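WARN  no MSA supplied for this record, continuing single-sequence
INFO  ligand: S-adenosyl-L-homocysteine
INFO  echoing inputs
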Amino acid sequence: MPNRKSPRSRVTATNSNTRVSTGQLPRRAVARPTPADVPRPANSNTRVGAGLAVRKPAEQVESSSAGRDLSAEAAFEGLRKRMVQNLRDTGITNERVLAAMQQVPRHRFVDEALASRAYENAPLPIGAGQTISQPWIVARMLSAVMGGGTVRRALEVGAGCGYQAALMAQLFPQVVSVERIRVLYDQARERLRSLGITNVQLVFGDGRAGWPAGAPYDAIVVAAAGIAIPEALLQQLTPGSGRLLAPEGSGNSQQLVMIERLTHDNFRRTELEAVRFVPLQSGVKL
Ligand code: SAH
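INFO  complex generated
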């Protein structure tokens, strides 16, 4: 299968995506896709899926650049469609995951300077030396973690920019997401808030311990690679149906691993494709 190897390269932090947003609702100038990115024909459908408060028409009327913002959002929606088609073409079949990826505006989770690249199947820097995973691997992990049955409560370790948490919010009723870098945590919180997402509990802390207060979880997704999957996370899976997806290993030698908790004491481990994630680190960074 193409794209097996996930080049989650550790991009040096060249972007300036470390500021914390202060505005009430997104008032920033909307970054626009470059003409070459704009799909043909330009899609004029500006509707955004239920649950996501993105660019309501009433808000746009207030702005003098409303028309341009509207067309930029329409162009981004077209790019999302193309991204979702690419995901289908490369083996992603879970329709709920594909629908969520069509809904969540990935360009709103990266620095404006990178917005035009938000729908490429590529990892992108998100500040603090971290990267957002390429869309294919995000779709792959979410599809796999949903394969065990109905997910009511889900945990993410490594909220980063909040993009995957926003997807999980579309898929699962209750989501807890833990991030250890303060500036990323603050930014993710602001982004989720500005999109009207209320079913994600963002936690600042070391996610290697999970978040016992919210356990058990039907699904756990770890977005950073550790040498071994922390035992605390396994213990927070729902016995009988809980599933965890995590990259294991370090540097160039990492494997995506799926753990199913079959009974209280019985776990099944399946090794999936080679991947490349940023490291799972200990402690927090203020
Ligand atoms: N899911 C994220 C991916 C971010 S990259 C997104 O959609 O953007 C992985 C993230 O894991 C980084 O933000 C990094 O700071 C975080 N991380 C690494 N070790 C962690 C730990 N022990 N606890 C919580 N977060 C951790």
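The helical segments are 57-62, 66-89, 95-103, 135-146, 163-171, 182-194, 231-235.
INFO  checksum written, moving to next record
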